[in-house]
Amino acid sequence: MTVRLGVIGGDGIGPEVVAEARKVLDVVLPDVAATEYDLGAARYHRTGEVLPDEVLEQLAGEDVLLLGAVGDPSVPSGVLERGLLLKLRFAFDHYVNLRPSRLWAGTTSPLAGVAPGDIDLVVVREGTEGLYCGAGGSVRKGTPAEVATEESLNTRYGAERAVRDAFERAMRRPRRKVTLVHKNNVLVNAGDLWARTFAEVATEYPDVQTEYQHVDAAAMFLVTDPQRYDVIVTDNLFGDILTDLAAAVTGGIGLAASGNINPTRAYPSMFEPVHGSAPDIAGQGVADPAAAILSTALLLDHLDRPAEARRVEEAVGAEVAKRVPGEKLRTAEVGDAIATALAG
Amino acid sequence: MTVRLGVIGGDGIGPEVVAEARKVLDVVLPDVAATEYDLGAARYHRTGEVLPDEVLEQLAGEDVLLLGAVGDPSVPSGVLERGLLLKLRFAFDHYVNLRPSRLWAGTTSPLAGVAPGDIDLVVVREGTEGLYCGAGGSVRKGTPAEVATEESLNTRYGAERAVRDAFERAMRRPRRKVTLVHKNNVLVNAGDLWARTFAEVATEYPDVQTEYQHVDAAAMFLVTDPQRYDVIVTDNLFGDILTDLAAAVTGGIGLAASGNINPTRAYPSMFEPVHGSAPDIAGQGVADPAAAILSTALLLDHLDRPAEARRVEEAVGAEVAKRVPGEKLRTAEVGDAIATALAG
Ligand SMILES: CC(C)[C@H](C(=O)O)[C@@H](O)C(=O)O
Ligand SMILES: CC(C)[C@H](C(=O)O)[C@@H](O)C(=O)O
């Protein structure tokens, strides 16, 4: 069956790394009908539009989406992020923002005394609620009396489906442990909602070990004892911070993949590297495409092709393990090497 | 002139570490009239009260406050934290939550390749706004239709005084650099307020180098490149997370001091270790009092006694440098050693 793939290269290094991800997909998933979408800063400057309704509708008809990166210094902060990236996450109800972190062989953690294999965690970041809703406003902007608000919206419906997904994932992993991260000593309304939901769902999974941590403590433990984590479930903003931190302790954002997943399949899920558009190195062919390629492994998992997903991960792992520290990589060479290894 | 010192031992290890901090203060600040306040879980269980108005009024009459820790598993999460700790921070308008992080000789960072002296940063965490205001609520609690909100309130007034304090501090430090941390690509209202305020205040300090980072990027850089930071200014919640993280990369929460400061002196400022009440080790005399003692150095700075403040820091530094890795410390012995060194 042909897989309809929507490709959004986006800004900066986005198109470069997505090109390599597609080389890899071409090998392991030959029957693909890909459509490239011209979205991002260039389109915004040309047309003033970020994501027209017709394009959103067309994207909704794809099976899966692959996204490079969004954001450019020439566009005011937030315009593309909210108008394109977050718009897609919300419109397509991507309630599981899945972000695995693993210390790969060949990479060095900035932490002393951790070895490849020591860290293997996955964050289920809720993707459709919290402070990302865009609820908030300003009065008396630009005056000394300015007030600005941001509102975090949280529902039992939203927390429960994310929590349940985390428990389901934990059941499929050897350690079977889920850590809820929130800040329920300060954010008592949302924190209590998450904690009660977590406790109730946990009763359905007696084989899963559970713990709760405040977000400040979790940030600390990700540095002092990242080995303790298996599955972390948390809200949208805490997940944003903790997944960058988890990427940092596992050797950097260059290997951090993510999936914006709608497990019900009512809408296409979207896969993207965690890194941004990195305008400073864009166009030079030196961006690491590993995170984009690893994101295709998550895409393959979502398409129920775990064998292909594991093959992609292994090929990336083998390529990374061969890297010579300090040697500059070339985006296309990395993609070619991985695609060739998979084809061979 | 006699300094009126209000002492709130609080919960768990709080009273133990505060006792050692007082030993040190007795040496370097002899003319103190100290009043102990019985606040925390024990009082709550005995009387049902967290912080009665009369006590708050009495505390307002002190010059400075020393606090141990607040929070106990026997009290629902948030009750003491919000009713006592945050209540004091807000009632006494502690808008500068000052949290220095330094890698001391004798401590080991969990990061590879950083040496004592490499990391020396201070976070100015805004202390009276943001998501800590207690604005928010729930509807249909306990039902599948539950909705919970948390609101972040931000004002030009509040952001500006925190930002200004950060620039003033930077001017007194050799590197003169301030990093604003926010998430202005998502929290566009509050983020824009902070960014505009920061840019405007910066024009008054042409000698100070500035940069902006999203909170997720800052979390990453605190692990991969903590040396880059001098002064960080950020909002209440981001400051909470980043200061625990900064403590972790500089050898742990055992040395993290903080001041809840009202620079106008309209109300007493309050000094406390960043660590919590650690109920698991309470009463055993094994808690590290270093963070509480270092908090008295911040207290001395606030009382315009920088010479005494530096002496306390040096004495703590010398004691820490002498520690034998793996050897269990005794709370009272650490306090005695530091107090004796200072008296000698
Ligand atoms: C670009 C930004 C809106 C986004 C987020 O905050 O979710 C990014 O940081 C991420 O983690 O995917
Ligand atoms: C106990 C809690 C309310 C507090 C906070 O979140 O500010 C603590 O984590 C801190 O950093 O002082």
TrEMBL record, chains A, B:
Molecular functions per Gene Ontology: magnesium ion binding; NAD binding; oxidoreductase activity, acting on the CH-OH group of donors, NAD or NADP as acceptor
According to its UniProt record, which cofactors does this protein need?
Answer: Mg(2+); Mn(2+)
Provide this UniProt record's keywords sorted from A to Z: Manganese, Metal-binding, NAD, Oxidoreductase
Q: Where is the Isopropylmalate dehydrogenase-like domain?
A: 4-338
| Family matches, as InterPro entries | ICDH/IPMDH (IPR050501), IsoCit/isopropylmalate_DH_CS (IPR019818), IsoPropMal-DH-like_dom (IPR024084)
Q: Which domain of life is it from?
A: Bacteria
Protein name stated in the entry: 3-isopropylmalate dehydrogenase
Give the source lineage, highest ranks first.
Answer: Bacteria, Bacillati, Actinomycetota, Actinomycetes, Micromonosporales
